[in-house]
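Hello Y.,

Per our agreement to keep a running log of every chain we model this quarter, I'm adding this entry. I've kept the format consistent with earlier entries: sequence first, then predicted structure.
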Amino acid sequence: VQLQASGGGSVQAGGSLRLSCAASGRTFSIYGMGWFRRAPGKEREFIAAITRGGGRISYAYADSVKGRFTISRDSAKNTIDLQMNSLKPEDTAVYYCAADPYSRVVPSTTPTAYNYWGQGTQVTVSS
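Predicted structure for the entry above:
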């Protein structure tokens, strides 16, 4: 599975950006997909994820982005998007998309659950 992230850029605080991640290869093996980010000098941080398991689709968001970020998935196109609104300077980071090959009732928020990673895209929010 290969993941290609796009859509990063620079925006002023309060603005919006939309990130996209396209999966290719053995996409039938993907159950969950998510977004993580890493700010300079900080650990990789879970942002949002979507997964299918137990006959349903479920979502998870970090508290820091709830109400501002929305993850969506187009299974036919094997893409996920992350709509980011009301951006803050503390959202500045490199954002990574990731894919989880296991069926789960709720999305995993731990990086080790994700076997496949995109290359990262920079998001910079200025005050």
